[in-house]
Amino acid sequence: MPVFIAFAAFLLLVFGHRLGLPIAPWAVTTGPLGNKRKTPGQKSAVRTQTLEMVLDHDSGRMEGRCLKGRFAGRDLSSLSQSESLQLLEELRSTDSQGAILMEAFLDRRWQGWRARNENARAKTERKSPRSGSMTANEAYDVLGLNPGAKPDEIRAAHRRLMMKFHPDQGGSTYLAARINQAKEILLAK
Questions:
Q1: Which run of H or E residues covers position 33?
Q2: Residue 45: strand pairing partners
Q3: CA distances from 137 to 8, 55, 152 (A)
Q4: Rounded Cα distance, 50 and 122, in Å
Q5: 23 and 66 together in one domain
Q6: How do residues 6-46 score in pLDDT, each as one tens digit?
């Protein structure tokens, strides 16, 4: 019987992902046919004009540093929630990609911050001409492209960003949705 259990566990580790079963990343470093799985110690880094962020794939911890503006030189983890929200508002008007990253940071650091700050956001949205939809210029900013980018460039930028910010890679559902929305808007033009 113990041999059967060990064999079943081995099969689960090797083929469980094909069945949609969540297998811990530490359990398997290579899949069938030797294809690589996520290896320990991987980090993703991204930089905008205002922020630089690093995501630790193992822990899911996200850390960043403000490069410009009122909080320049400060680590995001050193900011209070109030300061973080002030930085987010600043980024929304100066660095749309940085604002997306900051929202993801807030999602990880202070879960539920959106609901707690719903009234403040509603006031901000009333003052701003922005509606819930994204403009083409915002879509280009989200994907990090220049206006007039070709469909192949749009798809490549989308793919590159989704590899970094997809929830399965430690990103947030909000970021993935914004990246997908940007791609849809630009390809529909």
A1: none
A2: 54
A3: 52, 27, 18
A4: 25
A5: no
A6: 444 544 544 454 455 554 444 444 445 445 555 677 777 77
Quote the CA–CA distance of 27 and 75 in Å, as a whole number.
33
52 and 86 inside one domain: yes
Taking the C-alpha atoms of residue 20 and residue 15, their distance in angstroms, rounded to an integer, is 9
What total of structural domains would you count in the chain? Answer: 3
Helical (H) or strand (E) element with 136: helix 136-143
Q: Are 105 and 84 within 8 A, CB to CB? A: yes
* Strand pairing class (43-47; 51-56): antiparallel
Domain that holds residue 7: 2-34
- Taking only the tens place, the pLDDT of each residue in 87-130 is 888 888 888 888 888 888 888 888 777 777 765 555 544 444 44
Q: Residue 175 half-sphere exposure, CB side, CA atoms within 13 Å?
A: 26
* Cβ pair 113, 149 in contact under 8 A: no
114 and 149 belong to one structural domain: no
Q: Can you name the residues that pair with 65 across neighbouring β-strands?
A: 52, 75
Nearest 5 degrees, angle CA 150-CA 152-CA 156?
A: 120
pTM over 0.90: no
Domain match, 45 and 123 both: yes
Outline where DSSP puts E strands in the chain: 43-47, 51-56, 62-66
CB atoms within 10 A of CB 101: 26
